[in-house]
Amino acid sequence: MTSDLESALDPNTLRHALAAFSPLSVDVVAETGSTNADLLRLGDADATTRVLLAEQQTAGRGRLARTWVSEPMGSLLVSVSLRLPRRLAELSGLSLAVGVLLAECLNRFGAPVRLKWPNDLWFDGRKLGGILIELLPPADQHSRVVIGFGINVRLREAARDAALQPVADLREAGLTATRTELAAALLAELMQGLRLFAAEGFAPFQPRFAALDALFGQRVQLGGTETGIMVGVDPNGRLLLEQAGLVRAFEAGELSVRRHE
Question: Which PANTHER family does the record cross-reference, listed alphabetically (predicted)?
Answer without folding.
Answer: BIOTIN PROTEIN LIGASE, BIOTIN--PROTEIN LIGASE
